[in-house]
Every structure is written in structure tokens, then in C-alpha cells.
Amino acid sequence: MHRKKTIHWSMRRTKAYMLATVPTMTCCRCGKPAATQWRVCADGPPRLLCVECDIGLNAAILKWMGHPKAKRLMADYPKTLLASLQGSRHG
Ligand SMILES: [Zn+2]
């Protein structure tokens, strides 16, 4: 019998996936060194992204969602992402 595993909100990641320990991986979009990875729904395996493309993808997703606080969230996101990346290199 197959039981479906349920992921609750409390189990979700609060930080981006970091690849600081894998510096040779490159962004799937532009070829720069990858810093994060994204998995979009059932769209296959995670894709590696550089900082700039990660920020651009976040902005595009918020715009696509029609998120009411998209501008404010994107104003904060770059520094939050960079702080997370810095933390992952020292942790
Ligand atoms: Zn890129």
C-alpha cells in the first residue's frame, strides 16, 4: 500500500538551497557560477541558478502571481539572499 507523504508548512525551507560547497556548477540560464537551485513544480530535476538569475526568477514569479507586495518583497530579497549565501559559506 502506498502512502502519500504530506509536507506541512512548518516543514518547508525558509532559506534558499545553497550550493556554496560546489563552486564549479554553473547557472543553467547564463553560465555564471551557480549559487542556488530551483525546482518549479513537477518540471524535472532542480535547476542551478546564479544570484542574478535567482533574483530575476523571484521577481518574475511574484509578478506572475500578482502578489500585492511584490515590489516590497523584491526590495528586500537580494540582501536576504546574499546574507543567506554568506551564512552558508561560514556554516
Ligand atoms: Zn545566471
The count of helical stretches stands at 2
Structural class: mainly alpha
Q: Strands of the biggest beta sheet: in what spatial order?
A: 1-2-3
Order of helices and strands: EEEHH
Gap from first CA to last CA: 40 Å
Categorize the overall geometry: globular
Question: What profile does the largest beta sheet have?
Answer: 3 strands, antiparallel
Instruction: Please give the share of residues in helix.
Output: 25-40%
* Content of β-strand: 5-15%
Number of strands: 3
Rg calculated over all Cα atoms? 15 Å
Mean pLDDT: 81
- The parts where pLDDT drops under 50 for at least 5 residues are none
Ligand species: zinc ion
Describe the fold and architecture.
It is a single chain. This protein has 91 residues and is mainly alpha-helical. It has one domain (16-90). It has two helices and three strands; from the N terminus they run E-E-E-H-H. It has helices at 51-65, 70-90; strands at 17-18, 36-38, 47-49. A three-stranded antiparallel beta sheet has the order 1-2-3. Strand 2 (36-38) and strand 3 (47-49) form a beta hairpin. The termini are far apart. Zinc ion is lined by residues 27, 29-30, 32, 49-50, 52-53.
